[in-house]
Design brief:
about 15% strand, single chain, 5 helices, four-stranded mixed sheet, about 160 residues, alpha+beta, two-stranded antiparallel sheet, Arc Repressor Mutant, subunit A
């Protein structure tokens, strides 16, 4: 399992527009701007962060509605890191978005963890309980290298 910064999803706007048409939806200017902002961030982002990146090109309610639509269309994946804020990440077509994150408890920096060590556990849990299609969500939390030098919160960062 190697940590890495998030890769940026490709943004093939003609193909995305076609996906919208197939669902009887339009790729509006604000939706296009939101998709571009998601791609530029390259990792999980809150609707408010998207709104700020758009610099007034649409209102916050439009961002929330668009994120809900994009999630139902399978174009973004929602993440919850336990702080009460939903974060969304752009998915490539055919990508289920399954991966794990390492989140800094101080600055909220997010690193993507490559690979999944839980696939064997999924299989074992499914077999032991007679379930099919078992999946999981797993996030890791810690103190990033940039924040480790600071002890202003009294946390022991040597553990």
């Amino acid at each position: 399992m190697k940590p890495r910064k998030h890769r940026r999803a490709r943004l093939d706007l003609p193909r995305i527009a076609e996906r919208f048409r197939k669902k009887a939806r339009k790729l509006t200017g604000p939706r296009r701007a939101i998709l571009v902002a998601l791609r530029e961030r390259g990792g999980p982002v809150t609707p408010r962060e998207i709104f700020r990146a758009l610099e007034g090109r649409c209102d916050l309610a439009t961002v929330y509605r668009s994120m809900h639509l994009l999630e139902t269309m399978g174009m973004v994946k929602r993440y919850d890191f336990g702080d009460g804020q939903a974060r969304f990440e752009l998915l490539e077509e055919g990508d289920d978005g399954h991966h794990h994150h390492l989140v800094c408890r101080r600055c909220a920096d997010v690193v993507e963890i490559e690979g999944c060590l839980m696939s064997d556990v999924d299989r074992q849990v499914a077999e032991a309980n007679g379930f099919k299609a078992v999946t999981h969500r797993l996030e890791f939390f810690g103190i990033c290298p940039e924040c480790q030098g600071s002890d202003s919160r009294g946390e022991n960062v040597t553990d």
